[in-house]
Amino acid sequence: MLIHPSLARLSTLLAFQPPPFVFVHDPFDSLALYDFVGNISAGEADMQLAFAQVNAVECFNPRVLYTRIVNALAAWEPIWRTGGECWGGTERGQWDPSWDTFVETLRQLRQHLTLNEKGIANPSEPLAQLPSNEGPHFVVVFEKAERLKDLLPSLLIPLTRLSELAHIPITTIFHSAAPWSDVRPSFAAAPEPYHLPIPPLSQPETLHLLASLFPIRPDAPKISPYHSSLQPLYGFFIEAVYSVCGSNIKEPRELAYIAAARWPGFVSPLLEDWKAERDRVHGSDNEHEYEDDVGSHREKRRLAGEEVKGQRDGPDVAYPLPTEEGRMRLLRLFNQTFSSALTSLYPRTTHARAWARHNRATYRLSQPFDSHHNLLDISKAAVSPLSSLTRLAKVLLVASYVASFNPAKTDIRMFGRTPGGMRKRGWRHGPRKARKGKIAKASKPAARLTGPASFPLDRLIALYGLILMELDDIDVETSFAELELLKVHVFTTVTELVQMKLIHRASANSSASSHSGANSAAGGAGEKLEGSTLYKSNLDFDAGCRLAKEIGLDLTNLLWDSNN
Amino acid sequence: MDAETLNSSLEGAIYIPFDDSSQEEEEANDALWCSIPSRDLHEGPVLRLAEYDKAWTKCYARVQDIIHEFQVTLASELIDFVVNSHLADEEAMPPFQEIPAAAVIGDPTSRALIFDVVQARFDMSNDHDNAAPVLSCQLTNKSCTNLTTAVRSLVSGFIDKTSDDGTQMNLDPPKRHKGATNLLPYDLELLCAWYADVKEQHEQSPNLLVFFQDLESMDSTIIQDLIYICSLHISRIPLIFIFGLSVSADYLHASLPFSVLSVLDIEHFQIPGGMPLFESLISRVFLDPTYHPGLMLSPAVFELLLGSYTSQTASLNSFLSTLQLCYMYHFSLPLSVFADNNLLGTRNARSAIKLLSRPDSEAFSKHLCAETWPHIQDKQDLPPSMSWSAQVSQAHALVKQSKSVFFDHCHKFRIGFRVFLEMRTFLKENGYNVHDLSRKFPTLVALGLRGGLHVREVQNQLEFARKLTLAQSQILLIRIYEFLSTPDVGIVEEEILASIEGWMDNLTEITETTGSGIPSGASTPAQDGSTHQRGSQRSVSGTPNPAESASNFQLVQLKELIWNTFDTWFASHLKSFDELPLSPIWLLRASKATATLLNPSLHFTIVSALIRPQPILDCACCTDPQNSLADLPDTSVLFHRYLNSGKMINLYDWYESFAMGLEGESRGGSVNLGSRPHHSDAESDHDAGNDPLRTPRKPKKVIPRTPKKKIRSGSDRDRDGSGSEGEDEYGPEWKREVQARFLRSIHEMNLLGFLKQTGRKKDHVLRTVFDLLE
């Protein structure tokens, strides 16, 4: 197990002088790949420690939190046959889901553990007789402790003061990405914690950590990306990945993710070479062991279990690791793909397995360089997902974007027409320019920076009509336009787009209140009967441009403030 | 039920039994509607309904089959995904375990169907299946109103499944000790404990599949916490998520934070929809040579379908309802009764003719004769004084004849269209991807149905085909031959098949004689694309040199012959349907009303109903166009005044004018000094009973001395706060009634959105509707 230096400090502290409350501030998620409890329990303690690790998100309810802590401290595994019975069984009766019962149960648990340790199986002994320096010291670790503030706000202060309130030796550790000042309850109600900041991992530390994560499969055949003989090459590979991605990503977890996605492709030229070598030695009739086809390999593993592995590897075949030159060749082949992996995997536009499937290398390392073609051939023709929408929906979305990013009073200037049908002030001339000599109001930020503004349904429909007129679909001047604009499909499409979250409903409505439980669902007090419903566009500029292009318009021409 | 009971103050509730005796007949008549009743047969509606039923059931079944095929493919992919998840593979091993997830993108109806298929597959999986069993549960937005209920429904979704005995993975119910603390039903630890037990008892580790039916409608904050919680236990319980999304997987990125996205391993599954679905529906229902739907699309119907699909709602349901409405409209036309056969519901042709010769079907028969007359071949041979029954029987016989003509042509059209597309694909594959061939499938279908394909598109294609090299021509001919020789097609196309065989022989001869003389000649069909490209370019750029060789000249001649023959072949196959005799019977037609039915204009309907309520109310007294404004319902009266007003309306003035209108009406009405406030006039009772939508009729009670002035003065006094009691017997009552009716109508208009309050003037309202279509 890998030991993180900061956690080693904490474990020493816990072993000798455990503080009641520790706050571990980990802004870079450096501990994600470390075993937290394993690390802090590694110290040589002169007292017995009992650990409980709970996640604040999961323990959204006090009762869940209490049962989790008690079960973990008692190392109690609930089993299904007894209906998931918690520690204590029938002897201690059913808990009342209150703080007092929880604290009482903790005391009982401590007494129980102490007696067990001493070999006294007499639970009837009174609690008060237990000296405070005997018995185990409890350590409760809260992961994602910042979420306690919104999920269990009433328990935040008692949990920080757990040792005072329970009168037993217990340490509360909050592990959080947020700083203590954000988690801290107001009015100094919580004691000041022992503060342990976790710095980002340094380069050698990261490399060491990542290299230690090489997933060696003991049952892997010799020609497999996860055979232990490849570990030296893996170290080299990690260094290469770090040199490309390390400047952008600090989280070791993400670096490991990218490395895991790239590794099978990275070694495959070498494995291909090995395979060719094996075939040469064994003759061509040998069965392929390392299958490219994952499905069939999987099938084989599942059906035949353990039998397929490691039988064909004759001892006479040597599988040499690449020389320095071979490594350089590999690096040159794959260096560019590291950054493409970074751009698609870090934002999770694709996921590791799928990415690895699309980026297989199908050549041998010993092949001449020219034949390695289209390594970066991963960019599929990006089809806009919104292009499957109907034309009506597209026009409405463009109208919603215009309505959200143009001030309402500019509509008439952008789209207004004289009775003759000419535009009053052509938007083709572009938006207003700052006049010379007169300094434009600098205080007003650009529309695109302020985010979408809300607009009423009437304005959306009106803009929809005006955009249709720009497209020469209808003539708004005729009175039949109203007939066209207020059709049922227009309204149903708006509702549909709201459901798809492409348009956001800005005013309170009944569907929003129904989420927040039964009490507000009945009232729907936020609903205003009078006045129009307000909406907001939920598109970004690029999607808006794409949609406008699909219906045959240029979005920048429709925007008042398109330069910003 | 007498009026006394109704008026009694002692009765708390009154039951009015539903009387449907009078309406039954009416409804039956309404249901069987005919667009031209005057020309219909007596039993026409019933017969046509039966025909419609037959035709639509057939078409619907076909559409269902096609959809099912699509869905089964995707469902099996999903099933594979679910079964193969959580098996270790060599591809990539992330340093932490992720939750495998499938994002299924498509419209909600087809999504739900696919989910059902997948779920049914896993629910029914038996022991003989060697795949690991899968347990599934569904989460909807109703079960995810908050985090507690979401986790609870996830946990109970699996646990409850094993408690019934019917399923394959049943467990013994747990023995709970009384008084002990148990894990809570919304604790995932419980699911872990349960899963450990399942594994132990059945010695299998089933994957746990969770469906998120409609992810967009769920609260994203709850979903992200739920996913995060699940990810904490993924090493102990092999969960798999299936997300249902409507538009794109971008929603996942927009709504879930990075910390949640990074615990998922998402694969995308796109449900076929959009234009590909539409194209395959059209081509497989109406343009498939192996299938005959009984009716053919007309260009108008196709454009209606296309328009509503591309611009309004791109869903299967809307496609089906549009098509169904077109079918309904088609079968509302009198002649469509012959769509399937010409027997008119009788046993044989003779009785059908007898039915047609009956005096009550004279109008229909005349219509039929008029339709058939232009298509009777030898009009000279007809004796001038042909009897009526002979004419009818002749027309009747022609129906049968025309049917076979029409159906034959349909078949030929489908074949021709397929060959046309086949050629087009081939030309495009061979580098002729030029502007002339750029028209899309919908445009081609529309053109083809109008009979306009032969004018330009076919000519263009043949022009390119003439430029093909020898080898390419051979491949193209082989392709066409293969298509034409399929069993369903070959019967009618023997002639062209024989000629193709002859040409192929000729081409082979030329190949043999020239050997390598002709560029890229004598090559196998497995030539690679670049040779085609080069060959085609050469033949496009260079004109054949007549001096080159005799065989080359022969080849040019032969190619000319082949494609000229195809020219005539296409001309006969891609003819328009309109020229065929009696085509309206089998050519599906649409009216403008069909589109309006599917996509009505709400606003227009409401406004026109308020301006002219008579057609909507449809009662005897209201249909009289001579009726004055005062006879209209209250809301309508108010609306007329509203239209004449300015931008803002003073409520009091409005009320005044409304009261005046009522007064005018009462003056014009018959004097009835009866003391009952509700008159029992038969006519108005009928009205009130018939139409619930309608504003109750104004009582035609007339106050004997209700001059304008008095009402006014009464209102004035009312404003001042003093009553007008005692001045006349009916005054205050009448005034109260007018006020009540005014208020009610105002609220109705408010509800319909015609009024808008302003903060500035409390007694004024703003108009919201201005320029109206009159």
UniProtKB/TrEMBL annotation, chain A:
InterPro entries assigned to the protein according to its UniProt record, in alphabetical order: ORC5 (IPR020796), ORC5_C (IPR047088)
Residue ranges with Basic and acidic residues bias: 294-315
Recorded superkingdom: Eukaryota
GO cellular component labels: nuclear origin of replication recognition complex
Protein name according to UniProt: Origin recognition complex subunit 5 C-terminal domain-containing protein
A GO term for molecular function: DNA replication origin binding
Matching Pfam families: ORC5_C
Region: Disordered, residue numbers: 279-319
An annotated GO BP: DNA replication initiation
Organism from which the protein derives: Botryobasidium botryosum (strain FD-172 SS1)
Domain Origin recognition complex subunit 5 C-terminal: 389-558
From TrEMBL, chain B:
Residue ranges of the region described as Disordered: 514-548, 669-732
Keyword annotations of the record: DNA replication, DNA-binding, Nucleus
Species of the source: Botryobasidium botryosum (strain FD-172 SS1)
UniProt KW Transmembrane keyword: no
Similarity remark: Belongs to the ORC3 family.
Gene Ontology molecular-function annotations: DNA replication origin binding
Top-level division of the source organism's lineage: Eukaryota
Residues annotated as domain Origin recognition complex subunit 3 winged helix C-terminal: 605-770
Major localization listed first in the record, in broad terms: nucleus
Identification of the protein by name: Uncharacterized protein
Record field: compositional bias (Basic residues): 695-712
Record-linked InterPro entries: ORC3, ORC3_N, ORC_WH_C
Any Pfam family: WHD_ORC
Origin recognition complex subunit 3 N-terminal domain location: 43-338
One example of a Gene Ontology biological process annotation: DNA replication initiation
Gene Ontology cellular-component annotations: DNA replication preinitiation complex; nuclear origin of replication recognition complex; nuclear pre-replicative complex
Compartments, as annotated in UniProt: Nucleus
Residue ranges, compositional bias (Basic and acidic residues): 678-689, 713-722
CDD domains: Orc3 (cd20704)
